Amino acid sequence: MAAVTHLPTMPQGHADLARYKQPALLPSIDLVKTFEKSYRPAYHPAFDSARADIVLQSSDGVLYRIRSYTLRRTSGFFRTMFTLPQPSSISSPPCSPASDSSFASSSATVCDEEEEHIPVHEPSKILTPLLLLLLGRETETPIHHWSFDKVESVLRLAESWDMPGPISLIRLAITAPVFLQAEPLRVFAIASQFEWEEEKACAARHTLRYDLLADRSLRSTLDRLSARDVLQLLRVRRARVEGFRALVDDVHRFSAGNNDSYDCGRCSNSKLDNQTWKDLKQTMVQELEKRPLGDSVGGWLVGGIGARTGLGVMAWKEAEACWMAKCQNPECGSANYDRLTTLKQVRQCVDELTWI
Ligand SMILES: [Zn+2]
């Protein structure tokens, strides 16, 4: 039976590579060259200077030439490491495939097998951006376009290696709107860990959009927080709820609804039944308890945070009942409350709530 022509499977080592080069199996020498360049570890093109004297190797086999002087000046970890007595060979791991195909191409420099490498546990997707930040070079994508997992991983490595430069650059980006919008509690956790007070306060505000204890997606991050940080978040939430309750109960702000002896403003011949207003207040407070920012009460941004979507209180049945409440004098029938004035006052109550 005629054999079906096909390329042999990829060899697993250099011994296999020699066999692979046998003429009977070799379609062309160019294919072998291409294979060798993609198979052997390669230097990242931004870190292939022959003047560098240190080579870091990521867990996926990417190599980075970098000057030990640079590492000593920018990393407490490497400064300490280079002052310790060094073994004759730090490490000389065998060459292995470079999995990052984005630069394991014809433009990448192939490694020197005699060169000594320092292996790093992190993959190139974490090591590359960290080293680029360390050297003040442009990263492939701006930090605020990174996933938050990547931000945390790069930051964790920078902290482990005591690299204040990259840490400070990430700090500048950590309060980008995209992060505060999507991951305010994780921003809060990081800011707390690094004692970045301004960033921590900013992130804390954005967490007010969440039902903190009921939202299951937040549990893992909450578990990482200290009891002090959790209490800080809960304290401001409680302060906003209680503050709102006091403001909507204020007889001067809502003179008709909060005064049971208030007479109808039109006929002055009937006490107002304020039950609908009491029901609406209770519903608004319950909403604040879930989302202390208060944006969902009015459907507006609060302090520049939150969502504009939805009508908020205006779509609630409790509010509708409140606007429909009328004087019980059959000869009057005037509306108990002015809707626009009441909504304006409610909004003002939310805007006056504390942030700390
Ligand atoms: Zn009346």
Describe it.
The chain is about 45% helix and about 5% strand. It has a domain at about 235-350. It has 16 helices and 3 strands. The chain starts with 13 loop residues before the first helix and ends in a 5-residue tail after the last helix. Strand 1 and strand 2 form a beta hairpin. The protein is mainly α. The radius of gyration is 32 Å and the shape is rod-shaped. Bound molecules: zinc ion. Zinc ion (ZN) binds next to loops.
Overall pLDDT, averaged? 83
Helix content: 40-55%
Query: What sort of overall outline do the alpha carbons produce when their principal axes are compared?
Result: rod-shaped
User: Structural class of the secondary elements?
Assistant: mainly alpha
Distance between the termini: 82 Å
Beta content: under 5%
Number of helices: 16
Q: Which residue ranges are poorly predicted, with pLDDT under 50 across at least 5 consecutive positions?
A: 1-27, 89-110
The biggest sheet, with number of strands, parallel, antiparallel or mixed sense and barrel status, is: 3 strands, mixed
> Which compounds are bound in this model?
zinc ion
Strand order of the largest sheet: 2-1-3
Work out the number of β strands. 3
Computed CA radius of gyration, to the nearest angstrom: 32 Å
Encode the helix/strand succession as letters: HHEEHHEHHHHHHHHHHHH
